[in-house]
Amino acid sequence: MSDHLILRIVGKFLIPYILLFGLYVQFHGDFGPGGGFQAGVIFASAFVIHTLLFGLESAERIAPQWILKIVAASGVLIYALVGVAAMLMGGNYLDYDFLAADPIAGQHIGIILVEFGVGLTVASVMMLLFFTFAGRGEAS
Amino acid sequence: MILEQLIDIFLLVFLAIISIAVLRIRDLFTAVMLFGIYSLTSASLFMVLDAADVGFTEAAVGAGISTILMLATISMTGREEKPLKKKGAMLPLAIVVITGATLVYGIMDLPPFGEPDNPVHTHVAPRYIEQSPQEIDVPNFVTAVLASYRGYDTLGEVVVIFTAGVGVMLLIGRRRKRKEGISNE
Q1: Residues A123, B151 contacting (CB under 8 angstroms)
Q2: Domain range holding A22?
Q3: Which pLDDT value is given to residue A2?
Q4: Residues in chain A with pLDDT < 50?
Q5: pLDDT at B174
Q6: End-to-end alpha-carbon separation of chain B, Å?
């Protein structure tokens, strides 16, 4: 698709705003609609556009698959470890009340960390899925 | 009130038209595009129902990523659906009619739509709405429910997504590497 000049220019122009909107949805999820899931998908869609416009190799240079695999696993780990941290601080698993001296502050910390883990996993898994599909299409 | 109902009717009729079009059409590319429009219409419907988070997810996942993944799939498998063999249309019709009749029969037992004393509105929802400002103090109740009250479920969902990624990579991610390995040797 590299010979489509208009698509390339518009896509290039849109990618940073899509990434920014993904981050906004991630960190604004406490206040408005959104959260880790939606943010992850939006963030990944910027990379999908980049792949469609500039090819798989270019996208994989920015986000190599081995890094994405580590990020995908660490997102789940962050979520699970927040639960373990709450247990170590004296509460039940995933009971954020105990993450800080003040229960409400603990809840805020817990929600932000957990949503961050969700966002990491969703974004990297979506990118991995697309790269896998796209790479298979190119190979055959 | 009337306007809201008109929007509902318009969106639902649109959904029905798109579903019939998806069934009738043989060109898979068009079908995938129609599926994307279907998801976007569903997202609008969720917005009308004031479920902004669900609508957001439907628009991002259903209309965005699913469409892209299905397009990537038909770029491998081909654009045209195999011609349908016309035989035995009576049995599927009977199954569909019976299933539909059962569902309609089930709907008749549902409480009236939007009534304030429905079970959904009297069980845990009031507790979340009344207590979460003191307990969690997050303006978006949906985030409070998903990330804190229902933290286990969300952890499970993240594990499901991770597992899906692992599964896809195991199933179709390895072949390309093996091919490259052979050509390098």
Answers
A1: no
A2: 5-139
A3: 57
A4: 139-140
A5: 67
A6: 71
pTM of structure: 0.84
Contacts of B157 in chain A (CB under 8 A): 37
The confidence score (pLDDT) of residue A138 equals: 58
Tally of structural domains, chain A: 1
The identity of residue B55, as a single letter, is G
Residue ranges of chain B with per-residue pLDDT less than 70:
174-185
Q: Distance between CA B68 and CA B13 in Å, rounded?
A: 26
pLDDT score of A140: 44
Which structural domain range is residue B102 located in?
89-113
Q: Does A13 touch chain B (CB under 8 A)?
A: no
- Predicted ipTM of the assembly: 0.89
**Is residue B56, in this structure, part of any structural domain at all?**
yes
Q: In this structure, is residue B43 part of a structural domain? A: yes
Residues B105 and B102: their CA atoms lie apart, in Å, by 5
- Contact of A36 with A29, CB cutoff 8 Å: yes
List all residues 6 or more positions away from A104 whose beta carbon is below 8 Å from its beta carbon: B135, B136, B137
Looking at the structure of chain B, the number of domains it has is: 3
pLDDT at B16: 95
Q: For chain B, say whether A103 makes contact (Cβ under 8 Å).
A: yes
pLDDT value at residue A7: 87
Q: How far apart are CA B98 and CA B16, in angstroms?
A: 19
Looking from the CA of B10 toward its CB, the CA atoms found within 13 Å total 8
B118 within a domain of the structure (yes/no): no
In A16-35, the residues whose Cβ lies within 8 Å of chain B are 25, 29-35
